[in-house]
Amino acid sequence: MIYAYIRVSTELQNxxxxxxxxxxxxxxxxxxxxxxxTESISGTVKVEKRTLGKIIRKMHSGDRLICTELSRLGxxxxxVMSILNTxxxxxxxxxxxxxxxxxxxxxxxxxxxxxxxxxAEIERNLISQRTKEALALKKAAGIKLGRPxxxxxxxxxxxxxxxxxxxxxxxxxxxxxxxxxxxxxxxTLRKYMNxxxxxxxxxxxxxxxxxM
Length: 212
Description:
By secondary structure, the protein is of the alpha/beta class. The chain has 2 domains: 2-116, Rossmann fold (3-Layer(aba) Sandwich), CATH 3.40.50.1390; 151-211, no CATH class. It has 8 helices and 5 strands. The chain has a 5-stranded mixed sheet with strand order 2-1-3-4-5, with helices on both faces.
């Protein structure tokens, strides 16, 4: 099947010029479009969330996708290469009229697949490097990494108030309400209760009998 893909970024743009170019191209090359695919969406949106992504998933080996230019597929090179790589793997042919670009079962497809894999690897390395640099800068600036400060303080306060917490539990007050009052998570409160059941009456939550 032959699919013609048209994308505009806003409703203010119209499809007519792209449709006209595709019709002229098909007429000159003896082709007939089986299905027109149109959508109004930014090219920065992930292809999986666009109509284009749904169509590519349905297409089969030997199907052809025609567009006026590669920029209709995506707004950045990595996205376009990803789409081309997916189509190449599925055996889908793509022709971009203005770019005079053909993706078919030839050496170009293999080059695109290699280029995409290389670009993706470079991007992963850059992200990893940027993350490491950001963490190093925070550490150098004295910013503590990991869990937010104060978490252990809240638990310590809960330990000190255990008698009052235990009384509220015995009174049947909901755990969610008790946890909110003492600023701890209800799952943490349940953990305290489980520990208490294993300990004797004089031990604190968080202590087992062997700790005393």
